[in-house]
Amino acid sequence: QVQLVESGGGLVQPGSSLRLSCVASGFSFSLFDMAWFRQAPGKERELVARITAYDGSANYADSVKGRFTISRDNAKNTAYLQMNSLKPEDTAVYSCNARRVSVQVYQYWGQGTQVTVSS
């Protein structure tokens, strides 16, 4: 059974840091690109960051560049999102995504974790 389980969300003040974790099971984690998406109330879901399976290279949304860092530990089947200098506009539900494109597209989602940045 495929599972992506996020954790690490919470309520923090502006300028604070959080680290989100996404633990994967039921599939070959090391073969999948991993990503974090977020969705704020009334807004569309947006890609925050992605890290490739091939060489671990990462890309980020412009709004989080220099503040967020995505990483992965294939030995632990876990992806991370380190979020620093959090802003109120970072408030959203953050979801983990696993994707692999071969003969067909394989894509899995976690249930999401709430991040609220407020004073």
Defining traits:
4-stranded antiparallel sheet; 119 residues; mainly beta
Please give the structural blueprint.
Elements: E1 3-7, E2 10-12, E3 18-25, E4 33-39, E5 46-51, E6 58-60, E7 68-73, E8 78-83, E9 92-101, E10 105-109, E11 113-117
Parallel strand pairs: 2-11
Antiparallel strand pairs: 1-3, 3-8, 4-5, 4-9, 5-6, 7-8, 9-10, 9-11
Detailed description of the structure:
It is built from no helices and eleven strands. It starts with a strand and ends with a strand. The strands form two sheets. Strands 2, 4, 5, 6, 9, 10 and 11 form a seven-stranded mixed β-sheet that branches. Strands 1-3-8-7 form a four-stranded antiparallel β-sheet, with no helix packed on it. The radius of gyration is 14 Å and the shape is globular. By secondary structure, the chain is mostly beta strands. Helices cover 0% and strands 54% of the residues.
Summarize the structure.
The chain has 119 residues and is mainly β. It has no helices and 11 strands. The mean pLDDT is 97.
How many helices? 0
Q: Which outline best applies?
A: globular
* Cα Rg: 14 Å
Please summarize the sheet with the most strands. 7 strands, mixed
Share of β-strand residues: over 45%
Oligomeric description of these chains: single chain
> What series of H and E elements makes up the topology?
EEEEEEEEEEE
Roughly how many Å apart are the termini? 40 Å
Q: How many strand units? A: 11
Mean pLDDT: 97
Uncertain segments of ≥5 residues (pLDDT<50)?
A: none
Helix content: under 10%
